[in-house]
Amino acid sequence: MARPAAAQQPAQVPAAQIQPAAQPVQTPTEEKPKYTPEQQKQLDRASELMTQVGKLKDQGKFRDAIPLATEALKLRRTVLGLEQPDTADVIDSLATL
């Protein structure tokens, strides 16, 4: 008569080799920069202009959108500088017109 096969046990890992679960990385909460009321007004105007640019672009009215995007770029560059992503978004939009 054949002998029954022995059940295999899972390999035991020594406790010293078990790594603790990684702790979630705590990222500091980013505070929004504080702008003067005039700067905030300029940024709001730039956002309004870019909304209009998007609508004109969707309608195929590229020539009408260019002056608005140029003004939005001027406003954002003045308040945020050239290295800021919101300014770069305006440059990208202007390049596609």
Can you give a write-up of this model?
This protein is 54% helix and 0% strand. It has a domain at 35-95. With 97 residues, the protein is mostly helical. The termini are far apart. The mean pLDDT is 83. Helix 1 packs antiparallel against helix 2 (62-80) and helix 2 (62-80) packs antiparallel against helix 3. The protein contains three helices and no strands.
Q: How many E-type strands?
A: 0
Coarse structural class: mainly alpha
Please give the radius of gyration in angstroms: 29 Å
Strand percent estimate: under 5%
End-to-end CA span: 85 Å
Shape: elongated
Major sheet summary line: none
Please name the defining characteristics of this protein.
3 helices; 54% helix; elongated
Outline:
The protein is mostly helical and 97 residues long.
Helix and strand topology:
Blueprint: H1 37-58, H2 62-80, H3 85-95
Helix pairs in contact: 1-2, 2-3
